[in-house]
Design brief:
Shape: globular
Number of strands: 8
Structural class: alpha+beta
Strand order of the largest sheet: 1-2-3-4
Number of helices: 3
Largest sheet: 4 strands, antiparallel
Strand content: 25-35%
Order of helices and strands: HEEEEHEEHEE
Length: 163
Amino acid sequence: MEFVDKNVNEILNLELEHSAYEMATVGYFYEKKGNKPKGDPIKVSVTDDCGKPQVHVHLTRTKGKVLSCCLKLDAPEYFDHGVYRDLLTPEQIRLLIEFFNAPSRQPTFNFNGETYKLRTNWDYTVIQWNEENQLNPKVWMKLGRDENGYIIAPPMPDYTKLK
């Protein structure tokens, strides 16, 4: 997405930067050229801003391009609100799925008085959503734990079918 009006782009960047600081970062992934990272990192984060399970994906590039979208955590659908209206490319979707399936950067997470072991970034995203929305249990995603203490999170939606 490109903007003709530089001022609009600057305002959007400021708004994104401000809102991104209020979000809990799950992690980052990169677009790739061959096997090497290309460009700026794409940030994946969650927040407590509207009570619907969601994950934000954003990237601000120095060349004036901005990516800012929101995906539902419980369905393969975009969640259009605020400045989060962009669509991911098929390659970005593939990389996001790869990111969610990668080993969690945090092996355990304490939530609501209990410690959960985490396997993937998807597990971390779901439990981080609940943590960010701790004061609103109605919007928590259901969690369980197996006999070894690993989180049992809802399955990741098939984001290849995003609509």
